[in-house]
C-alpha cells in the first residue's frame, strides 16, 4: 500500500488563491514579512492612520466592542484597546492568523467577510483596515457588516487619488509589486456611492478624512480627497 506523506502545510504551495484568483496573503513568502513593513518605512504612515481612525470612531461613543475583518496579523486589532474598544479579529488567511494567535490576546475567527459567521448586531462596530480593496463584491460585504455591527462601520484604505497608485501599477508591470495586483482602489466619493447602494433604506451619516501626505506638506490630514490613505466612518442612526 502506498502512503502519501502529509506535508503539514496550512496551505499547499500550489494553492494560493482566494475568490478564484491568486492573492499575496495566501503566500507565506509575503505574509511572513508583513509585520516588518510597519516597523520600517511604513511606521510614520501607520501612526497617522491610527490617528485618523481614532478620531472617526471615538466620536461614536456607543462603540465599546468591534470586529475587525481582514485583521491580518492583528496590527490594528491589537491597537483598538488603546482607545477603549474591545476588539475581535477575523481573516480568511490561515497564514496571517497563524501569526496573529501569538500576537493578539483577544478572540480570532477564520472566515470570509462575504459570509460573516455572527448573529445580527453581535458587535457595536465593524472595521476594515486596508482590506476592503480586495473584496470582489463590496456591496455584499457592506451589507454583512451592517448586519453584524449595530452602530457603525469603520473603513480605512489606500486612496485612489494618490501618486503612489500610479507608481504601484507601473511596478506591477515589471513584476515588482505583488500586493496590489487584485486590489481595487477607491476615492471617498467612489466608496460613498457603493455604501449608498448597499444601505438602501437605512438611516446613516458618513464622515471621512484623508492623510498620507508628504512629510514636507504643511498639513498631514485634511478633508480634501487627496492623500495616500483615507478613513471613513458610517454611523448607523436607525438603531437603539
Helix content: 25-40%
Mean pLDDT: 83
Strand line-up across the major sheet? 5-4-3-6-7-10-8-9
Characterize the main sheet. Answer: 8 strands, mixed
Roughly what fraction of the amino acids lie in strands? Answer: 15-25%
Derived from helix and strand composition plus strand pairing, the structural class reads alpha/beta
Task: Label the overall shape.
Answer: globular
Describe this protein's structure.
- By secondary structure, the protein is of the alpha/beta class.
- It is built from 7 helices and 10 strands.
- The strands form 2 sheets. The protein has an 8-stranded mixed β-sheet with strand order 5-4-3-6-7-10-8-9, sandwiched between helices. It has a two-stranded antiparallel sheet with strand order 1-2.
- It starts with 16 loop residues before the first strand and ends with a strand.
- 35% of the residues are buried.
Amino acid at each position: 500500500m502506498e502512503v502519501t506523506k502529509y506535508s503539514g502545510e496550512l496551505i499547499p504551495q500550489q494553492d494560493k488563491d482566494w475568490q478564484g484568483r491568486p492573492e499575496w496573503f495566501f503566500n507565506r513568502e509575503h505574509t511572513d514579512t508583513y509585520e516588518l513593513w510597519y516597523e520600517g518605512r511604513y511606521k510614520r504612515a501607520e501612526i497617522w492612520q491610527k490617528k485618523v481612525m481614532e478620531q472617526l470612531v471615538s466620536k461614536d461613543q456607543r462603540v465599546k466592542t468591534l470586529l475587525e475583518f481582514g485583521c491580518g496579523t492583528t496590527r490594528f486589532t491589537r491597537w483598538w484597546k488603546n482607545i477603549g474598544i474591545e476588539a475581535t479579529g477575523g481573516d480568511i488567511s490561515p497564514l496571517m492568523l497563524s501569526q496573529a494567535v501569538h500576537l493578539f490576546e483577544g478572540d480570532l475567527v477564520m472566515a470570509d467577510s462575504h459570509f460573516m459567521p455572527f448573529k445580527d448586531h453581535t458587535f457595536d462596530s465593524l472595521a476594515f483596515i486596508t482590506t476592503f480593496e480586495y473584496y470582489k463584491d463590496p456591496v455584499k460585504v457592506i451589507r454583512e457588516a451592517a448586519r453584524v455591527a449595530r452602530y457603525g462601520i469603520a473603513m480605512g484604505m489606500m486612496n485612489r487619488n494618490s501618486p503612489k497608485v500610479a507608481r504601484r501599477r507601473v511596478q506591477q508591470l515589471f513584476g515588482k509589486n505583488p500586493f496590489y495586483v487584485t486590489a481595487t482602489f477607491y476615492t471617498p466619493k467612489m466608496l460613498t456611492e457603493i455604501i449608498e447602494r448597499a444601505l438602501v433604506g437605512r438611516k446613516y451619516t458618513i464622515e471621512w478624512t484623508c492623510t498620507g501626505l508628504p512629510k514636507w506638506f504643511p498639513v498631514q490630514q485634511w478633508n480634501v480627497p487627496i492623500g495616500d490613505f483615507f478613513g471613513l466612518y458610517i454611523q448607523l442612526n436607525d438603531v437603539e
